[in-house]
Structure formats: C-alpha cells, structure tokens
Amino acid sequence: MEQLLQEMEDYAVQQHIPIINVRGREMFLHVVRECRPHHVLEIGTAIGYSTLLIAMNAAANVHITTFELDEARAQIAESYLQRSAYAQCIDIRIGNAGEELCKLAGSFDFVFIDAAKGQYVDYFHKILPLLSNNAVVLADNVLFRGYVLGDGKPPRRYRTIVKRLREYIELVGHMPGFVTDIYENGDGLAVSRRIEHDKQA
C-alpha cells in the first residue's frame, strides 16, 4: 500500500491536485485510528488518497461512501483504489454532494469533509440526520491559509470562502450535542465529536 500511496502523492504534486498535506496527515490519521469507524461518508474524493488512508486505518469491516463532483477525478480515484486491498469496501459516487446528500440513507460514524469550502455549513446540516450517536465529523482546510482566525484581511478572491469557513467554525463550535476541537495542523482541521445523550446529562 505504501508504494501505491507514494504514487498517488507524486501524481497529486504533478497535476496540482490538493490532497491532505503532510502536516495535517498525522492528526487526520490519529483521529481515524482513534475512531476506528465502520461506516464512513467522505465528501470530496479527489483521487482517492484520503479515502485509501481511511480504509487502511478504520475498522476491518469498514464501508466508505465517497462523493466526487469531477467525473475525471472520480475515474482516476477508481483506478487507484481498484489496485488496493480495499476496493470492495469503497463506493465512489459522482455528483454534487450538496444535492446527493439529501438522497442518502443510512447511519455514519465518521464523516470527512474536504470539498467546496463555501459549502461546509450546508454539508453539515445535511449530514446531521445521517450521523450515529457517537459520530465524528472531520473537516479539512478550515483555517484556509491562516486567514480564518488571523487578523489579516484576506484577498478579495478569498473573502467569501473565509467568511463561510468562519461560519462553519461558529456553527460546529456551538452545535448542541457536539464538542469541536480546531487543530492548526496542515491547513486546519475541525474535529466535531457527537456526544451521546446520556453523556450530556
């Protein structure tokens, strides 16, 4: 698997495709290993790099449903994942996650959000009915180049993204039934852990 991961890393660099970076990867893997999830929802497959990392570190019987908007990238992800030992437990779906999430059924104990930054709030609201009692939601890039929590004014082209990510942090930070930690690793990770009802009392 290490050789396949390295090949995917090299391809991402060559093609300028964003994947979870080295600085954020350690915390990402720590959270996955801590959860050992069985039912995973991923929003933003890209080339399947994080998908494979989750599969390698989740429960032995994990099943991953992952959404990718870009059909070409989804096909590349499929070609990589078919070469892994986890192909049978990964379901790649092509489409707009904002629309497809409303059609999704089931219960997920781990959700990884790494797609359109301006849609994180919308994604969170749509996954809420799909979360198990002890679910963990991990969102990548929430600090967006340091602009989200920084004092500096973001460039005009990033202002909407920064505003929306601030709204996301505010949302998960005050969402009843959740405890959220923000880690500065990489480009910022928000880890929102759902607290079971009996533990809230």
What is the structure about, briefly put?
The chain is of the alpha/beta class and 201 residues long.
Can you walk through the features of this model?
This protein is α/β, with parallel strands linked by helices and 201 residues long. It has one domain: Rossmann fold (3-Layer(aba) Sandwich), CATH 3.40.50. Helices cover 39% and strands 22% of the residues. It has eight helices and seven strands. It has helices spanning 2-15, 22-35, 49-57, 71-81, 97-100, 120-127, 159-173, 197-200, and strands at 39-43, 63-68, 90-94, 108-113, 131-140, 178-183, 189-194. The protein has a seven-stranded mixed sheet with strand order 3-2-1-4-5-7-6, with helices on both faces. The longest helix has 15 residues, at 159-173. The protein is globular. The termini are far apart. The mean pLDDT is 92.
- Provide the CATH superfamily: Vaccinia Virus protein VP39
Percent helix:
25-40%
- Tell me, briefly, the overall form: globular
**Helix-strand pattern, N to C?**
HHEHEHEHEHEHEEH
CATH class: Alpha Beta
| Major pleated sheet | 7 strands, mixed
Structural class label: alpha/beta
Summed up, the helix count is 8
Uncertain spans, ≥5 residues at pLDDT below 50?
none
Neighbour order of strands in the largest sheet: 3-2-1-4-5-7-6
* Strand residue content: 15-25%
Radius of gyration equals 16 Å
- How many distinct folded domains? 1
CATH architectural group: 3-Layer(aba) Sandwich
- Average pLDDT rating: 92
Would you tell me which CATH topology applies?
Rossmann fold
How many β-strand runs?
7
Amino- and carboxy-terminal Cα gap: 44 Å
